Amino acid sequence: MQIAVLNESEDARVAITPDGAAKIKALGVELLIEKGAGEQAFFPDEEYAEHATMADRASIMKNADLIVSITPLADTDWPKIKDGAKLLAQFAPFNDKELAGRLQAAKVDALSFDMIPRTTLAQAMDILSSMASIAGYRAVLEAALRLPRYFPMMITAAGSIRPAKVLVLGAGVAGLQAIATARRLGAQVEAFDTRSAAAEEVRSLGAKFIEVEGAVEDTGAGGYAVEQSEDFLKRQREEVQNRAMKSDVIITTAQVRGRKAPLLVPATTVEKMRPGSVIVDLASSTGGNCELSEDQKTVMHNGVYIIGNSDLSAKMPQDASVLYSNNVVNFLKLLVQEGELNLDLDNEIIRGAWFTAPAPANS
Ligand code: NAD
After folding, report:
1. What amino acid positions are annotated as catalytic residues?
2. Which of 5, 51, 196, 342 has the greatest number of CB atoms lying within 10 Å of its CB?
3. What's the whole-model pTM score?
């Protein structure tokens, strides 16, 4: 069986590193790597050559049984792949309800990393967490570079500088990493999340948890937040506004899977912030938590920088690739048995990820 990795020129990350290539070869499969695939993450072709065959894109499309990527192959590429070949990437099918149908109609099979259940057993394959953690870290660094002030408190002969105030909205994987990073840089941090379980995690990182009464929680939502009532969101926005006026940096990470991101920072709040403040909106690709953020752009409003970027992990391509690749290898260990693909639908991790799988006969 041939497993292939593409050169994703639009993304600096690579789905499998040379170290990952060695581990995949040990599974008894042949690995094809598109030339230059790891270059932007500083993994040259020579480092792959010992464990993989370097190939061009056309021959990968024609021959590979399983293509692993970060961004899914475009619809226009589907007809070019071999009949029966499988695609493995982050398809986010919960944001595109027709995707599974289009893939099935094109006779393309797809497995999505973001559909893997977020259970303890699947943690080693959890690409969402790996990438979110990097994004949370990087969001703080981006903010610190834009902020015209220090993060830590400084006491110098020329005078004292107060520590920066950072507000984190959404304390999931990205938010918690943002809190930890901002604390390490010496900022005062407060955070908010609708899941009550987040409160203890926020406090354990030395940040203050903001309480807003009446959030809806659903323990059956697999650890994810659920949509809130308009009344709750209104009260939350008022609370955010009170805090925002005193904050130097706001990092927003609030997402509700399969829905538009909740609006937490309206334009009127941005207008009340001090000039020079910075907002980093990690939810910008799903509509944004800030009304003024534009995905993949940095804009300025009334002297406030608003960075809209949900792909900040790609700005640290080497470590992002290392973690992505480790997650891929762990998933492939489950999928590949004796050198062949074994998509066992009785396995809940495979069943979760294989979102184009045929429906069970008795359903
Ligand atoms: P996410 O990216 O879907 O959302 C980010 C955060 O935004 C979440 O913490 C969510 O509660 C919060 N949020 C949603 N609406 C909000 C609102 N109106 N106001 C404020 N915050 C809001 O989530 P995620 O970070 O990928 O994961 C969420 C949780 O899933 C984790 O914290 C954890 O409990 C669970 N999880 C479990 C595992 C595992 O067991 N393997 C792995 C990863 C995550």
Report:
1. 118, 123, 126, 129, 224
2. 5
3. 0.94
